[in-house]
Each structure stands twice: as C-alpha cells, then as structure tokens.
Amino acid sequence: MPTNRRILLARRPDGLVTDADFEVVEEPVAPLAEGDALVRVLALSVDPTNRVWMREQDSYLPAIELGAVVRAAGIGTVVESKLDGFATGDLVTGLCGWQDYWTVTADSTANVLPAGLPVEDLLSIYGVTGITAYIGMLDVCELREGDAVVVSGAAGGVGSVAGQIARIKGASRVVGTAGTPEKCKWVVDELGFDACINYRSEAVGERLEELFPDGIDVYFDNVGGPTLDAVLANLAIGARIGLCGAISAYTRSTPLPVYNTPNLVMQRGRMRGFIILDHLDRFPDAVMELVGWVAEGRIKYRVEVVDGLERAPETLNRLFTGEHDGKLVVRVAES
Amino acid sequence: MPTNRRILLARRPDGLVTDADFEVVEEPVAPLAEGDALVRVLALSVDPTNRVWMREQDSYLPAIELGAVVRAAGIGTVVESKLDGFATGDLVTGLCGWQDYWTVTADSTANVLPAGLPVEDLLSIYGVTGITAYIGMLDVCELREGDAVVVSGAAGGVGSVAGQIARIKGASRVVGTAGTPEKCKWVVDELGFDACINYRSEAVGERLEELFPDGIDVYFDNVGGPTLDAVLANLAIGARIGLCGAISAYTRSTPLPVYNTPNLVMQRGRMRGFIILDHLDRFPDAVMELVGWVAEGRIKYRVEVVDGLERAPETLNRLFTGEHDGKLVVRVAES
C-alpha cells in the first residue's frame, strides 16, 4: 500500500500557525474496507475557515480535535473503490483534509465532479470560492440594479469575484479595499472596480465618505473590524451588509471592535452572516452562471498554486498576512 | 390670544441636557391662518430619539435646528380650526414639539385619535411605544413559537411591552436586562419575564450563558454597547437581532464598542435596525391586537406622568440615567 502523509493538529495555534502546532505522520494506507473508496488528494483549497476550525471553540462545524488531521476542502481522484457511485478515475471534492490519501465512506460529504475542467478552477471560480461570492452578493446582500457597493478583501479569492458579479448585475459603483498598491491596481485595472482603497495607507472612512456621498447600499464583508466600522458609518438608508468572513478576527483572541452599530438603526440597515454550506441548493445556479461569465470573459480570477502538502501551513498564514492575490491552492499531487 | 411657551434648542448638548442647552420663550399665539388648526398640547412623549435629534448629525429625520422648538411627539386637543379634517375638540397626535400650542398645517403629520382613551395610554401602550414593541418583536425579530428571547431595557416603555408580546406569542423563554434590583423585580414578578439580569451588578455575558445553554434566538435591543456584545457572544444558529435603539450611545460622542460581530457569521445571525415610521401600514394591526391583550389583562404597562412643560428637559435625562420604570410622559395641560 502507498504511504499517507498526514498533517495533524498538535495544539491550538496562537495567531499565525507555526510548525510546532502540527505533527506530520507517515503511515501506510490501510487496506480498503467494503463500502469505502480511496482518493488520492490532488489539491487543497486554502481558506480562512481552516484557521477558524483550529480554535478551541466550535463554530459552524466542531473544532478540529487535537491529534486529528487538519480539516480542509480539496479535490482528489479515486484510485480504488468499493463504494457505490465512486469509480476509479473519478474526480471527487469534499473535506479531504491535509493528507495524501483520503478514505471516503458512505457517510462522507464527497461529490463527484464533472471531468474536463482544471483542478485549480474547480477549487476557485467553480468551487466554494466563486459560489460564495455569487450567493453572498446576490442572495445575502440582495444586490439590486443601481446599488453602490463596497467589497473588502477585494483582491482575495472571494472578494475579487464578488465585486465583478456586482458590476455584471448593474451596481452603480463598486469599490474594493485591499492591503497593497499592487493589489489595488489589479482590482481596478484588471477586474474593473471603480476604485480600490488601500486600508494600510489610506483613511478608509474618509475615502468612503468621498466616494459614496449618498451612502453605501451593499457591503460584502470579508474582514470585519475597522473596515466594517468605516462602512457602518457611511450607510445609505436600507443598506444590506453580508458578512462572509472576518479575517481580521481569526488569528486574534479578541476581535477588533466596531463602534457604529447604532447607525444600523438610523439607516434601517441589515447585517447578515452566512455560511455557504447552508445554501447547497443554489450551487448549480451559481456554477452555471459563473461558467457563462467566464466563457464570455466578463469575470477574471487569479489562482496561485503552491506545490507540496508540507507547505499547507505556511500557505494558510499568507491569507492573514495578505501576501497573495486571488485564490491560494496547495497542489498535493499531479493530476 | 393665549401665550405660547416654547422650549427652543439653544446649543447642541454634550451628554445629559442642561438648562443652558435651551432657551424658553413666551410669545402670543399668532392669529390662525386659513388652512391651519391650533392645537393645545396636552402631553408629550419622552423618547430617546428626542436626544438623537438634538445632535449635529442628521438621522432618520434632520437634526433639530438651533433656535427651533425641540421636536417631540405628543397629543393635544384642537382649540380652533380652519383646516379640513380637524374639528374643535378633536384629539390629535403628531410631532407637536416642546410647547403649549402647536399650529397644524396641511403639511403637518398629524392624526386625529379616537375619543375615549386616556391620553397616557394613547402615548404609551397604544402609541408609538407599544406599536414599536409589537412591530419590532413580530416583524423585525420575526419571533417564532419556541424562540429563546432576550430584551434589553426591559423595564422601559418599549422593552417591557416587547417581552410580554414574546411571551404571548409562544417564546420558550424571555429574559430581560435592567439597571436596578427594583426594576428587575418588577419585570419578573409583574410582567412575567422568566428572569431579569441587572446589568449594573451582574456579569451579563456569564448570566446569558447560564440562562441560554442552547443560545439566544431573538434579541430585541434598546441599548446597544456591552449588552448587545454579550448577546452576540451567545447566539443560537439563525438568531435574529432587532435594533430598536442604542440608548447607551445617544449621550456619547463615540458609542461603546462591540467585539463579537464575527459571531454573526458563525451562527448565521441577522441584525436589523428599524425606525417605526417606516411601518405605518402595520399600526392598525398593532393597536387592535394590543387593545385586546390589555383588555384580557395579558399585557401590563406603567406610565409615569410628570407635570409641567418646563420639566421636559430633566425628564428626558431620566431615560439615560435609568431613573424611571415604563413610559415617561410630560403633562403640559389638563385634558
């Protein structure tokens, strides 16, 4: 049997993850039981939620147990199957974890993917990343034609797509926030946002006030903290805020404060958190429309592929230091 | 003509209001113009929003201009009318302001009230106070049978009614917060809440954790700040927060911080601010159902009447120091 490298959670990280937070074990893959399928992991999706799951408190899924393989979504190919619906060679997606081989059982959440699309695309624009942008902007933020829109994390995997969807669906103005001049340039020049505020060097609140004299109708939030607060201070009446994530909070023991929630009363605003797994019924609509937009060249996206399972921890940290554009994927094996 | 005492806003208050923030003028009532009606003000509703309107920034209504009469809702009786739909002796409600006489024009928002109900009730349980509790709990918080509910400002005019409505509509548990042992006792013993947390002497977060092991489904918020934050830390999945007001913020230049908004993501929570004037179409339903509940003895309420227009400022302050139970009304003249 082949050897399975597995990255286990050894302790709860404090801030960014370090090598000492993990234990790497190598063990032979066990012979396949009746009713199971063995999947060779090809690539891992690197998502802020991986870090959330490492914390002690349960979230929308239970915390990863100490000693267990780190939970992560990914894609693999079936190398042996004794499980109905899974044939050798099938491309499969699900919570495979940080390991080389994933044993799928009848209880696993695992879905066979259509053949013919690159693994990186299936993990980004046609995966949870693109679908989150779609459902967050259209269903949660209830984008309407003419809305003035802000997207934080605009150079990230989700934010970059969310802003482009707003534009396609008739937003009057789309402004992003990002953390470097290069990211801001990419967001405006390549993705077609109207403006992008560098939150590290500019006063976000003042810039929003200038850019939105009539207030912000829709805010797609990936970061929380001071950026959320600056948006709350500049809401239009009836504003809708979709909380997709709060990356400013996930590596801190106490999140950054927000002061302007009373403005939600004055402006009759709505703020709603969402988890994409609650919206599985909308996945087919999302993928179908995204495929069309990509084919027409109306949506651009960027995927950075990092080679090697062993680089999953350092790659995860880059989500929190901001050292990336677009979607980060770890390649575990050649497809 | 009679003399009209008018309390004008002389400057923007800082914190609680003081005499120096106002100028009291006495002037004869001008002869009535064609198309106007003259109303003798009988009683004023004392509401947190009065203080909001005194601030420099516009809110859902423009800020009160310096030198203008202080904006406030109230009830009066028509003493002379040259305006269609208003007859001498009619009871009228609207934004009459802190003055003895109110000149209603065709443009005024003024409504004739049914005869036969006490003025105090029309300004509390059957007025904006009771209607806000009703619409906030049922339409904004979307209360469902079996929900576990928290109401802040539970001894206040709105909060005391909101909690009782939740109970009537099948909440599994209703817990209030208030600022003195006497208020908490009233809320539990007289109003029938399951518990009431004294936010001045108890750790609100810990108490909520004990009282809601499965989390909070609905929070009717009148205060904002640390109480809102403690609720955010204890949400059930799919929780709904109705932001009716943020009394902790209105006398401060910077509101108190809230840290736990990221929990709205994890718990897929919704937070929505509302202003009762957006819901005028629901007023008749609300009043009809409230009248029935009061008649059946299922809703109790308390109104404290303070005598004298000149006491409006000091009475307003009591909303922010917490020195009152239930609804505060200033009586301007005998009805």
Please outline the helices and strands:
The structure is a homodimer.
Chain A: E1 3-9, E2 22-28, E3 37-45, H1 48-54, E4 74-81, E5 91-94, E6 101-104, E7 110-113, H2 119-122, H3 128-140, E8 148-151, H4 157-168, E9 173-178, H5 181-190, E10 195-198, H6 204-211, E11 216-221, H7 225-232, E12 235-243, H8 262-266, E13 270-273, H9 283-295, E14 303-307, H10 312-321, E15 327-331
Parallel strand pairs in A: 8-9, 8-11, 9-10, 11-12, 12-13, 14-15
Antiparallel strand pairs in A: 1-2, 3-4, 3-6, 3-15, 4-5, 5-7
Helix pairs in contact in A: 3-4, 3-9, 6-7
Task: Jot down its keywords.
six-stranded parallel β-sheet; alpha/beta; 10 helices; homodimer; globular; 335 residues; seven-stranded mixed β-sheet
**Beta-strand segment tally of chain A:** 15
Report how far apart the termini of chain A are: 20 Å
The rough form of chain A would be described as: globular
Strand content of chain A: 25-35%
Count of DSSP helices of chain A? 10
Query: H/E series of chain A, N to C?
Result: EEEHEEEEHHEHEHEHEHEHEHEHE
Kindly report the greatest chain-chain contact and the residue count on each side: A-B, 35 and 35 residues
Kindly provide the radius of gyration of chain A, computed on alpha-carbon positions and rounded to a whole number of angstroms. 20 Å
Helix/strand class of chain A: alpha/beta
Q: Outline the biggest β-sheet of chain A.
A: 7 strands, mixed
Mean pLDDT of chain A: 95
Low-confidence stretches of chain A: none
Q: What is the subunit arrangement here?
A: homodimer
